[in-house]
Amino acid sequence: MTIKEISILICGIVFLVIGILVSKHNKWKKFKTYIPILLGLFLVYISTVGPLSESKKIINEITKIDNTKVKSITFQPTRYIGFEKLSMYKQDSTVYDRNSIKDICKRLRKSKIEGNRFLKNPKGVCRVIINYTNKKKICFGVRKSGKTTCITIDSDGEYGWHYANLNASDFGNILKSTK
Hints:
The protein is 39% helix and 25% strand.
């Protein structure tokens, strides 16, 4: 578990305890007593079995990607609203060549987790879909500004629960040649 997941889990437990203590004091008569309990249950759920529990697995799939299991890699225009004009691709661009896939995967393995660093004003964006041979796929967003490239890992590629940011400047160097 990451620090983020642990802190959300602890907050959920604290809300549960507070909600139970308040409800015991108020004899379960008021709806307000249920709010901390519901919030606590929600926070415990998302950090243990919900979407945030998948974050470490998805980060590892990108930073420890095995190129022999990758069928293809697709670079798409961004779906992120407001960034359409910054898309590095106007249409889908799919890579099937084994040598290119091997090179892309090697560059992805060099990605490192960044704390809260996020490119707020990127010069180019795209969405990447990695298709595996077992029909599984991983999606993530890419933001590029100069030599800096940031991979944003969210539960739906570019939307949803935010898992992490990866510094992937080496991966960003290949985006110019695949465009």
